[in-house]
Amino acid sequence: MRHGETNWNRENRIQGGVDIPLNERGKEQARDIALRLTHTVIRYIYSSRLSRALETAIEIAKFHKLEVLTDSRLDELRQGKWEGMKVSEDHILKNTCVLILWGSTGI
Predict the structure, then answer these.
(1) Catalytic site residue 64?
(2) Does Membrane count among this protein's keywords (predicted)?
(3) Helix pair angle (24-36, 51-64), 10° resolution
């Protein structure tokens, strides 16, 4: 599942491998999904090492009395010099491939 909101999500910035924590809304989202999953049987919880994903996973793990297992293979792909840039910036807008991937729900 996807992590809760960060300030960079709100600002439409590319996060990539930058470790951006959840903002207050993201923390609320993590608590909400944790509550909704209370009656779901969960045996393992895996997370990337990035705090936004880990914070979300920890909220869910609390209700199931589980440990969160982190794995670097789940870390978000690095985006190089694009990290921190807004998606609306000209040099990103010119790359159609990035726009297609950015807006895709199937990836």
Answers:
(1) no
(2) no
(3) 30
The topology (CATH level 3) of 7-103 is: Rossmann fold (3.40.50)
Beta-strand pair 45-47/68-70: parallel
* Active-site choice (3, 5, 55, 59): 3
3 is an active site residue: yes
From CA 13, how far away is CA 10, in angstroms rounded? 8
pTM assigned to the model? 0.79
**Among the options 5, 55, 59, 76, which is catalytic?**
76
Sorted by where each begins, the domain ranges of the chain are 7-103
pLDDT of residue 13 exceeding 80: yes
pLDDT at 25: 98
